[in-house]
Amino acid sequence: MKSYAISRRNLVQAMKEKASEGRQAQKNSLRDMVINNFSSLNRNLEITDQVLRDLSTQISYFANEYFKRWDPFHGREDDFLRKHKSWLDTIHVFESKNPLPTPPPSPASKPGPGRPVVDFNEAAPRTKRLKSEAVRKGQTVSSLSHATAMQLRVQGKTAAAQLVQKIGEDPSVADHILQVYNQYQAYTPPQKMSGEEAVALIVHLDLSKGQYITLREKVAQHGADIFPCYNTVLSAKKACTPPSLIVTETSAEVPLQSLVDHNTRRLVGLLERSVPSPFDNLEGPVELEMQ
Q1: Where is this region: Disordered (predicted)?
Q2: Which of 18, 71, 113, 160 has CB 3.0 to 4.6 Å from 29, enough for a Cys bridge?
Q3: pLDDT band for position 203 (50/70/90)?
């Protein structure tokens, strides 16, 4: 995709030179200028019929937009220039969506001796300032932002183009965008409780099944789905119960050894999840020497 950028003021000036000959003559003059400049910027590239159709459509659209803005002033040029100053100072981009063949690199383009050419994105801040000085000189912020937005659209980066265009039209929008971005970067999403944590909460607050389910649903409705489902709670409760527990209508009994084994397994499992092993980063067999 190839493009040609020029300020709208220059386009309007080219049309005004043929104002006495009628609007079709103005369009033809604009068309000749744009196509000639487009060809000059894209030398050694074939200007196909499709490219000409693309450019002609865009030229006609711009001319009609100019006439639409010009007609209400009935020839009062000073009023027109004052009213549409921002529009006239904006860069307009003509582009061809028809893929054009890229010419092979000429021998003269091969890098020679001396300092190597550095890509702009990889250049130092001072180098970037020097390289962009010619572009910035004589251009307004709105025209530069519009040109940047159009180039982003050419590359298919529509969202970035919209942001640049909004900031160019109203720089104060950037403060709000930056604030929202910083809040997003600092945001930590809520973490869902484990089954064991939910059981501990139920015991601590003495919640019934219905109370827990109601609490879980209400919190989820406010955007914080942090409580596990009740089936997960039941599984965690079951894991907390010694396997040899005997429950009757009047009592609950568990052998002491079974209780000790169960508590030991639970503690070891908890330590394995929370404390890193000193042997995690070791490779191969480990030999322990008793002192």
Answers
A1: 96-117
A2: 18
A3: very high
